[in-house]
Every structure is written in structure tokens, then in C-alpha cells.
């Protein structure tokens, strides 16, 4: 339960993770992976490989996940922004 409270404290203004640079690099990696997933669906379709998801759905899902990941990681790696 203490870990959950510690996680919630990271969203408060003035708090940040211990190593923001590491988390920022993970944020960049997550963004790149999202782009690769979207591109991968397009490439698979171009080569005639049918996937159970279309490009529109893949873009929507990846875009939503990236938005949440980027928002969370931006808040928890900055002491200047956060919830009051």
C-alpha cells in the first residue's frame, strides 16, 4: 500500500522521480515503439499480410497509449508541474 501512496505522490507539484533522465529516455523509447507499431501495421498490409486490426484502429490505440504515457512521464519527471 505504501508503494501506491509513493506513486500517487509523484503526481504532486514539487515531486519527481529520483532519476528523471532515465525516465525521459524511457519516454522517448515508448514514443519510438508506438511509431514502429503503427508503421508495422502499414508495412504488413503493403506486403499482403492480413492482421486482425486495421491501420485506423492501430493508430487510435497507439496514439491513445502514447498520449497517456507521455502525459504521465512528463508529470512524474518534472518538479514544476503536477496536481495540487
Word description of this protein:
Keywords: Membrane, Transmembrane, Transmembrane helix. The chain crosses the membrane at residues 28-47, 59-78. This is Holin. The chain has 84 residues and is mainly α. The chain has one domain (2-76). Helix content is 68%, strand content 0%. It has 3 helices and no strands. It has helices at residues 2-9, 20-46, 55-76. The two termini are 22 Å apart. The model has no long low-confidence stretch (mean pLDDT 84).
Short structural summary:
By secondary structure, the chain is mostly helical.
Low-pLDDT sequence parts: none
Ends distance = 22 Å
Shape: elongated
For the record, the count of structural domains works out to 1
- By DSSP, the count of extended strands is 0
Overall average pLDDT: 84
User: What would you call the structural class?
Assistant: mainly alpha
Helix content: 55-70%
- By DSSP (H or I, 4+ residues per run), the number of helices equals 3
- Percent in strands: under 5%
Biggest β-sheet strands, sense, barrel: none
Can you tag this structure with a few keywords?
84 residues, elongated, 3 helices, 0% strand, 68% helix, mainly alpha
Question: SSE layout and pairings?
Answer:
Layout: H1 2-9, H2 20-46, H3 55-76
